């Protein structure tokens, strides 16, 4: 199940101004949260390909609808207030071609106007591999940020997932690493002391903590997890050759 918004987290306020949301404005209905993402260059918004791939067909089936990017901490579903930016989505042409081992699930939206926001950063090539090799990755924390549904109780099923169109954040603990994926714990119990993502956070960032301090480096983006947003968070790495090959067409890589 595609992942979305934060579980067991807290309101973000102005803590991560470079994290925004894809929204769609539907005539006569309002503004709806679609996916999360991060400003990584003055006019480049990082998100997931499974967020951008359906845009063209949705617009064809919903005449008059418009997709925007907003960095408002709280999304006004009426569309009467807020700041919205138009742009062009760019889905990775290799998206879904690599199977589950590497879905190439990374995309960008090039904005028509630069928001007055300082962008976040991408990681150096192979950052997570280097940290695994020096044995520091296992104790490293990450901060997930995004919009959408939330979970407040681990004891409930689907009824524990609540709508909430505000930017939220939560810290996570590391679980496993593969060539394309990084997996995080998202149970707020025991030694893990983690939350995670849920429906609405796809494409949103996971900022790595270095030397015990949170950075603005997007180590991975939200892709999927368990369907009820309780157990694990499976995210696409931004430091791999395949992710960097796509991103390098739009931004200067570190």
Structural class: mainly beta
Cα distance, first to last residue? 32 Å
State the order of secondary-structure elements, H for helix, E for strand.
EEEEHHEEEHEEEEEEEEH
How large is the share of residues in beta strands?
35-45%
Overall average residue pLDDT: 89
How would you write the strand order of the largest sheet?
Answer: 8-11-12-15-14-13
Rg computed from alpha carbons, rounded to a whole number of angstroms: 17 Å
Number of strands: 15
Helix count from the secondary structure assignment: 4
Sheet with the most strands? 6 strands, antiparallel, barrel
Unreliable spans are none
Classify the oligomer.
single chain
What overall form do the CA principal axes indicate?
A: globular
Helix content: under 10%
Could you please describe the fold and organization of this structure?
This protein has 254 residues and is mostly beta strands. Helices cover 10% and strands 36% of the residues. It contains four helices and 15 strands. The chain has helices at residues 49-52, 55-61, 127-133, 241-247; strands at residues 10-11, 19-26, 30-41, 44-47, 66-70, 87-91, 107-111, 141-146, 150-151, 161-162, 168-177, 181-185, 205-210, 213-225, 232-237. Strand 3 (30-41) and strand 4 form a beta hairpin. It is globular, with a radius of gyration of 17 Å. The relative contact order is 0.25. The mean pLDDT is 89.
